[in-house]
Amino acid sequence: MPDAWEGAAREDLDMGDVAAVAEEVAGQTSHMNEAAAALAREKGWAEPQKYNYDVYNASNKPREAGTEDGAAAPVWACNAAKYEWKEEYGDVGPRNEELEKMLFRSDYHNRAGDKFEHLREIKVTAETTHQPQPVKSFDDAGLHPIMLENVKLCGYAVPTPVQAYSIPAIMNNYDLMAVAQTGSGKTAAFLIPVLSKLMGKAKKLAAPRPNITEGFDSSLQGVRAEPLVLIVAPTRELVTQIFDEARRFCYRSMLRPCVVYGGGPIRDQRMELQKGCDVLIATPGRLIDFMDKPHVLSLSRVRYTIIDEADEMLHSDWDQEFVKIMSGGDTNEDADHRYMMFSATFNKDCRELARKYLSNDYVRIRIGRAGSTHLNVSQQVFYTEDNMKKQCLYDLLLAMPPSRTLVFVNSKSQADLLDDYLFNMGLPSTSIHSDRTQLEREDALRAFRTAKSPILVTTGVAARGLDVKNVMHVINFDLPSCTHGGIDEYIHRIEGRTARIGNEGLATSFYNDRNDDISADLVKILIESKQPVPDFLQSEVPEGELTFDDDTDNEGDGNGEEASGDAYGDAYADPATEYSNDTAAAAVETPAPAEKVNTGAAW
Ligand code: ADP
Ligand code: MG
User: Fold this and answer.
1) Topology classification of domain 377-540
2) DSSP labels for 572-590?
3) Which of these, 373, 407, 379, 368, lies nearest to 179 by C-alpha position?
4) Which pLDDT score, from 0 to 100, does residue 376 have?
5) Mean pLDDT of the region 413-419
6) For helices 97-104 and 145-154, angle between their N-to-C axes, nearest 10 degrees
7) Reported pTM
8) Which segment of this protein is annotated as the motif Q motif (predicted)?
9) 3-state helix, strand, coil in the chain (%, to 5)
10) How far is the CA of 244 from the centre of ligand 1 (A)?
11) Residue with CA nearest ligand 1 atom 15
């Protein structure tokens, strides 16, 4: 059942009948509302793009790798170009101008925004018996020279808070649990130190490598993939994004990254693995598939196992697979195997996971209150009955200057319907959800990134962790219900998409009585992030102190009480380190109205 596991099992990929959908869409486009379309043009929105189903239907043939704009035939993200190491290179490979341009100078690559300072002002706590000294700059972090150059090529001037702490922790060989808001740079927080540490040692540690020359035949000359680093993340979009970041950081080194994910071409993925793989990034389902083929993949060399978005991994029946993944690399009982978990929230299950899989002296880093929202996302909530939502969305879009806009819905059918509606109203929308084929998902995302289709309608699962430059507006067409992630999901949606690395953004939510299960939590978040609470939610404004269930580190029932002298508390009895404000990424303390935990043993 591996694939059911992907996308947190709430959505499964069903290849669907693309041709039938194409016909349907073609039929519907004739209903294009000409007047609405004219108005959309007038307001500056681009023309909507039709799906090119011919391309999808013809897409079984091998595709050319490495093009970023997808202008030609669609390219699987897993086949994107990477630096290919050759035997004759010394410790540092020569530059490759063309690849460098593609990796580091793409227009669509997210860069730090004006509000970067905000991120540097959040409170950080690191707690462990061995407190890492935060690094003030990448130059002082003891990085391998190649890594340092790659960081500079990425344009990262100073470490974000989570990076400032995780780099020294990982460089000093600790297991790590890092909790930081979405968009705070967690990917680089593990990739930079882990890959940097391996750069000098790859020759010694890595599995034998084939000599990839013209005419390389992986079925004859291929090797078994024996990665040194295993990174697991819950969605396909997220793993390809991590892969992209890994391609940048591995540049000019011998480390070779590969990505495998469900829905992608298994043959292409296997062929990539057979060219050698030092860094494997995978969704759990596809990873297990490959683990069941020991001649293709062995985890016996793995030195670092990293679980990204660990909280999301916990949403479904992951238990068995998780155990398998976490123990996969321990066939040689190698004490040198480090485990890391990254998450945006740190609920009870995450804590349990950390206790179960991380070594006793693991370092815990928490940036701001887990689950809190950025100060630089403006949030507004409108009361909107279900039957008026479409009209409201249309009006809202036309009232805004055209910009990259993410529209969240709660079901796949709703995503289709809404995408069609917007399309027919002449707005440049596209959509992703897990009933689309993987190639369609990748293509829709590319159209969104490159602003060919600046409006993306999506389900929450499909969009988890996406890092797209300049998403200015997130619209919760449907607010998440408590059974679908509730307020955590709300935070992921709004915080993860806009205001990434400090770009300012707006979040609009449509609310009606069907959303009252989330109303109390929503109001707390609005208050905490200093946003107006609309009249119809005033009754939910709590009296007295704000409390956040999810924020407690206690081992009890999560009812908000402080941890008291149990094994967990005692182990971390050292006072929390505050990120002192003379560091490069200075932390001015900006406590939430009622910061309840974050003291001594509890955190
Ligand atoms: P998270 O995993 O915490 O949600 P990401 O790792 O996806 O965040 O990073 C968000 C964005 O920030 C990415 O576009 C990344 O390239 C960028 N970024 C990461 N670190 C830095 C840094 N030190 N300076 C500037 N930008 C950074
Ligand atoms: Mg992330």
Assistant:
1) Rossmann fold (3.40.50)
2) T-SPPEE--TTSTT-----
3) 368
4) 66
5) 91
6) 60
7) 0.69
8) 136-164
9) 40, 10, 45
10) 12
11) 185
